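Backbone shape codes
____________________
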Amino acid sequence: MAYNASTFNSPSLNAMATNSSLIYQRDVSIAMNSTLEDANILGTLATNQTQLDIKGQLSRENSTHFYKYTLDGDNLKLAFVNNTASSNIRLQILNSSGKVVADSSETATQTLRDAYKNAASWDGLDQKAGDYYIKVTFDAAAFRAVPQKYSVAMYSGTRFSTSYQTTAKTQTSTRQAVLVDNTMTYSLIDAKAYETKASHVANETKAEAVNIGWIFADKSALSVTSRLTDVCSVQYYSLMLQKGDNLKLTYNNKTATSDTRVQLYDSSGTKLYADSQGTAAQKEAYKTLTGPDGVAVDPGQFLIKISYMPGEEKKEQLYDLKVFSGTSYTALYKTIAATQSWDDALATGRIGTAYSMQNVLASYLTTMSQGEETSIIDTLSQTV
């Protein structure tokens, strides 16, 4: 049973959850040096229907955060809290053009401070329906050595039936990968999670695709964790869309030392819907696939192909992907896909025609004659 959104009631702002209200959640990433164009989308703040909530952390390395929301109504109320409270931080509301319309800082103009005070009051701030931005940063001359955790709760009207919680994960080093999810897909806070294991084989074909399950719009989602290797350099996944009119996908190469490619096909593997490294049109389709709208499709079976870019050095790449339909899910089916080793691929005949045994033996004997430690398997893996 879902948690009741009454946890996010705000008596001081006269905004209360209705009976049987639901909580949905998602994580987003904030890269260093983010700008307004990088704003994370929170969704729609609809009067007497939805409540939007943000949790984040400012730091010296990542000191400016942007969020975007759409107001479906004419009034905004918000509660901005610095949970660490050892330094001053600032919240600004910007209109769709990026102009500041409200500001919590004491250094702002009186008009902007008054607008913020209205937003943080029982009556709220009157705003026209449309797109707006939230900007959170350190206040002028604020001490930045200690990270500051903050929360923002947003309301419109006096009640809400659904709460959408966004937790921001911040990049604090250029060596830290930024995990991207632009699909705007929320999970129910107590979504069920199921896990299964599978394995990729060398020279995998479409017919040998790993089956990762089925998707039902706004009910189930699929998740995969695996790795590309020089042995399993082409990997396929099959999935079934039982009900829904779109597919959305997130893909993150967590290692990011080799360039990889993601393609979405029909069940036969002949019709290509989207390609992360294809033609301009195919890349645009991939952008749509990984965005909030997704690619329009009919129910049926689909294939996802993960591979290295042609000519790319085949370094091991750890990756994960998720597939959705709709805007939310209540159950997540996870697949942990292992990869076949050289030894096993040789023993099972998955590889064996792409090398000359005479050359392998010659290379092995040369290495040994030079006093270096090796094995015939290691030599083979370097020769194939």
